[in-house]
Amino acid sequence: MYSIQVYRAAIGAVVQDLIALLIQRISDLQDISEQESHHLSDLLCLLVAPVVELFSDSPNVTAPVDQYVPAFSKYLAIINILNLSMVAIVERWESGDFKRLFNDYEIRHWMVALFSDTPLRATNLKRIVP
Q: 4, 82, 106, 126: which could join 41 in a potential S-S bond, CB 3.0 to 4.6 Å?
């Protein structure tokens, strides 16, 4: 019989590949309407509880998913980005919340994909510096 660590490592590798693929496919989108962003967020949320459950010993004890699925934090952040305002994205970048998960190019990409080309967007894009 395999240990729980071996099980979690194996399941983690499979889930990591799935999450990485989803992140890549969503990141490749160039123009996401407000309605599409909410639908994408809802779809991505469907995986959160089952993934967390895969790493649970019991209903009250959960192993840190990030330990086995390194892309999980970024996945959760993308769900948030899909629901945030432009100002909230910039504020989270400037506060450092997103800097450990994304580089400046990625945050700019999300802002361009999610928000219309306006002077306000241009101004906020200038605030996204490394």
A: 82
